[in-house]
Amino acid sequence: MPSSTGYLVSAIVISVALFFGLWWILVSGGDEAPWLPAGLAASVVLLVALSAREVVMRRAWTRYLLENGISHPPSRSRSSGRSQKKGFSASLHSAALRAIQKQSSAADRPGSAPETHLDVAQLCHEYLASTDEAIRSGSHGSEKGIALRAGQERVRALHKHHLLTWARGQSQLLTYEAQQRARTFDKIETATRALDCLDSALRIYPDETDLSESRLAIEGFIASVKVAHWVELAERSAFKGHYRRAIDRYRDALFYLNQDMVKEDVRIAGTEKIESEIEKLKARLKPGNGAHQRRPEDSGPNHD
Predict the structure, then answer these.
(1) What torsion, rounded to 10 degrees, do the Cα atoms 64, 70, 74, 75 define?
(2) DSSP string covering 62-103, please?
(3) What is the DSSP string of 121-187?
(4) Which of 26, 124, 178, 282 could bridge 34 with an S-S bond, Cβ 3.0-4.6 Å?
């Protein structure tokens, strides 16, 4: 995590410098109230800096959970573990459970962002880790132990609900974002992030068939993007007269088209079309057909 203090100090210094810079420029220009636009601009810069940090930190936290696995309990020191065992009581258990249920209800409201479900899932995970330690300590009576286990059952259900909801919602948002991207690399990178969301949930709940189906659909989208990319490059090469290079690129497109995640009807239709284009290009390469060929460029680096 970057230093919060250093970031805030830097943002404030930049805002103050901007304020005095604009103020001096406006005073030189004869403005009657130079402090007003200068203060407004400095305030906007400071607010943007704070908002940007919040967005970046949230994304960094989400990436951390995806990379390290939300199923692993967070590390705690021995002293904090002992204090939790001593301080955990029925009242604290009830308060923590009520807080989780309250946040769960807020996250389930229409229009809530997928990140809110991830926050609730993380709270549930921390609750389960704490109660597991309390139960293993054996410092509670049978009645409190029963209450703890009953609370765990409810929280496990909430954890599954919110983690799966987050995975579905976040993957859908990222897939839609990938479809709107212009560059092939950006499409694939964004779609891969959607796969990471689904994989993080499937590692904990591998029997969720709808998540597995969504994963296959996203993999099919990535394959189609790669096929379209290589077909476009092949068409450019053919237009420039680089027929051998065009054939190679059509074959690259066939490689991605024949992946298992591509639908069979799409695979068959695409394969027939690409193989037809390859045959046309091979015919142009035959001696005596009068076609314009650029053999030195065909073996050279890719300039398309």
Answers:
(1) -80
(2) HHHHHHH-TTSPPP--HHHHHHHHHH--HHHHHHHHHHHHHH
(3) HHHHHHHHHHHHHHHHHT-S-HHHHHHHHHHHHHHHHHHHHHHHHHHHHHHHHHHHHHHH-SSHHHH
(4) 26
What's the rounded mean pLDDT across residues 205-227? 91
How is residue 187 written in tokens? 């499409």
| pTM greater than the 0.85 cutoff | no
- Answer whether 15's CB lies under 8 Å from 46's CB: yes
Cα–Cα distance for residue pair 128/51, rounded to 1 Å:
32
Buried b (16+ CB within 10 A) or exposed e, 107-124: beeeeeebbbbbbbbbbb
* Banded model confidence at residue 8, pLDDT cuts 50, 70, 90: confident
Q: Confirm if 228 and 216 have CB atoms less than 8 A apart.
A: no
Rounded Cα distance, 286 and 25, in Å:
72
Model pLDDT for residues 46-68, shown as the tens digit of each residue: 888 887 777 676 666 655 555 55
Tens digits of residue pLDDT in 172-186: 999 999 999 999 999
Contacts of 99 (CB under 8 A, 6+ apart): 123
Most confident of 69-78, 80-89, 95-104: 95-104
SS3 content of the chain, % helix, strand, coil (to 5): 80, 0, 20
Encode pLDDT of 236-279 as tens digits: 999 999 999 999 999 999 998 887 777 787 888 888 999 999 99
- Which of 254, 237, 255, 256 has the alpha carbon at shortest distance from 246? 237
